[in-house]
Amino acid sequence: MNEAAGLTGLRVMVIDDSNTIRRSAEIFLKQSGCQVILAEDGFDALAKIADHDPDLIFCDILMPRLDGYQTCALIKKSARFGATPVVMLSSKDGLFDRARGRMVGCDRYLTKPFTKDGLIRTVDDCARRAATAPACASA
User: Under a CB-based contact definition with an 8 Å cutoff, are residues 42 and 67 in contact?
Assistant: First the structure.
């Protein structure tokens, strides 16, 4: 895959309460050369973001304690991480869900279950756009 060369060393955080989703994303991303940081929920993610300084964040919407919308809003309000692209992950693909994601500052939306190609295309697109702009555009 030609895209993989551009993804080598990219730090990608995956926030999801599903172990299956986290592990699938981790395998796909590592195969493409990314460094992967995993978090089980929003609180876990916020504790790890400052230590790992991710280049891109995938964030599930439906999580216990701190949901994806709240997590995204906190990331985007941060002076240090506000420009970091956040891709919302959800099994729901409705207009309301996408609009709510945009309202809290997400840069993109990826529907679960995702494919390896879909995940890597999203990472590649965000990485390319981040090189020329502050955040990746919505699909």
Answer: yes
